[in-house]
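Class prep. Write one:
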Amino acid sequence: IDTAPATIDVLEEVCRAVASRVEVYLDGGVRRGTDVFKALALGATAVFLGRPVLWALSYNGEDGVVEMLDMINEELRLTMALAGCVNISDISRDHVRMLAQPRL
């Protein structure tokens, strides 16, 4: 569906709607550690990695997946450090700015 909003664009709205009654997991569009950081800042409990795992698996099997997970983890660690976050719990909405998206 080419006019549907990206999962990251509606994540905060979904988190507000469920008001902490359930955990929210983001699935779709996560390619880097910065994507993980943004999702956590916008209220996700966790993220799923789909395509990156498949790409890494086809690249170098299990070792490729381990390498990809290490890269995502290092990118998240660096992003957290640059944002002044020591722990995952330090990540907050104040760390990201979302541009207004047109409503269709």
About this structure: The first strand starts at residue 25 and ends at 27. The helical segments are 7-18, 33-41, 51-82.
